[in-house]
Known about the structure:
single chain, 131 residues, 2 domains, 6 helices, 3 strands, 41% helix
Amino acid sequence: MSDAPSAVPKPKKSVALSGVTAGNTALCTVGVTGNDLHYRGYDILELANTCEFEEIAHLLIHAKLPTRPELDGYKAKLKSLRGISAAVRNALETLPAAAHPMDVLTRLSRERWVVRLAQYQPFCVACSDSQ
């Protein structure tokens, strides 16, 4: 062992992509004033402390925070889109309740359930509707 004091390594500053624009979007800005993130001009820390998930989703999709009636309507719309068909429900109910999620995914992939289940759950046009 050496009695020499151990050198404390300097923290490395990543400069590889500093100042490089990755893309332009109206949804968010990153690092404008340092270590920050904004969604549609709102600081993400403020949103996280004061808003519900659905409020932030509405902000991202509709470009503004919802009023109380808009939020109630948006929540109702999202709830109406959560249903699954009887065929999908029956297939999922055959899985063991205590199965680990990775085991379920492996089984679904191996038995090509994902492909079979997709035919019972058509693409939801209303999900992409921004109205």
